[in-house]
Amino acid sequence: MSKQRITPRDIQASQESKWVRRLLIGFALTFVFLFLVLPIAAVLTEALRKGWDTYFTSLADPDAWSAIRLTLVITAIVVPMNLFFGVAAAWAIAKHDFKGKAFLITLIDLPFSVSPVVAGLVYVLVFGANGWFGGWLLAHDIKIIFAVPGMVLATIFVTLPFIARELIPLMQAQGTDEEQAAVVLGATGWQIFSRVTLPNIKWGLIYGVILCNARSLGEFGAVAVVSGHIRGQTNTMPLQVEILYNEYQSVAAFALASLLALLAILTLIIKTFVEWRQRVAEESIERGLP
Questions:
Q1: Cross-referenced PANTHER family, in alphabetical order (predicted)?
Q2: Do residues 83 and 203 share a domain?
Q3: Are 164 and 108 in contact (CB under 8 A)?
Q4: Is residue 5 assigned to a domain?
Q5: Distance between CA atoms of 157 and 87, rounded to whole angstroms?
Q6: Model's pTM, two decimal places?
Q7: Which domain holds residue 275?
Q8: 137 & 24 share domain
Q9: Which 8-state DSSP code applies to residue 114?
Q10: Which of 45, 85, 182, 225 is the most exposed place for a label (fewest CB within 10 A)?
């Protein structure tokens, strides 16, 4: 096979692409600094403007602590539920053929195209006092809207696609050869999942959980509609930040916002680590290493 001859035009194109690459990198770094790093730095600066004592006092406020606790509780409920649904939906879509498969994929993608505020209004229409099931719920003393259950449902809706959408293409790329081999060897369904499927998708699964967790912590629109903004009861951290800022308690608002920012940074660090581990695992598989 003859070697490909490099022409002066190829060399010129390579040199031009290097400058284009540097320009794009510079533009990206400038954009990230102006619209991500600088706002986060401003939030931290404003939160500490009156010192550490005021900062911790703001976070120790009963309403702020209630918002922190409620945010963590909702996240602790939402993430496992989406984890179960995401794995089940991805398994069904990637490993099986059935009628309505395309429709199921469309439904999973629906929260990406629907405004969170609209999603919250839909739950009010269904479960509100004047909603479809409002009369029955009132008769049985069950409260969903303006209570924690409605906030959990709204958060589940907006975070529904993250885990499933992360696993579906991964499972489709892996195919079903290993599962079929396990069936031939007499493995049960649980053994196939725990010893074959789960190890192959674990890093994608962790990545999806991280994204779902991040969205659960910071969700505002859908939760704001169904929460009722009851102090100490139905305010999450984003809602409490809005209330404090509207009441001109800027230091307290920025203190709580800084905690959200720190959680976001921690999520980003974990996400970066997971991506690195996934890349190392893929390179090891390509080289045939265990």
A1: SULFATE TRANSPORT SYSTEM PERMEASE PROTEIN, SULFATE TRANSPORT SYSTEM PERMEASE PROTEIN CYSW
A2: yes
A3: yes
A4: no
A5: 16
A6: 0.82
A7: 51-287
A8: no
A9: S
A10: 45
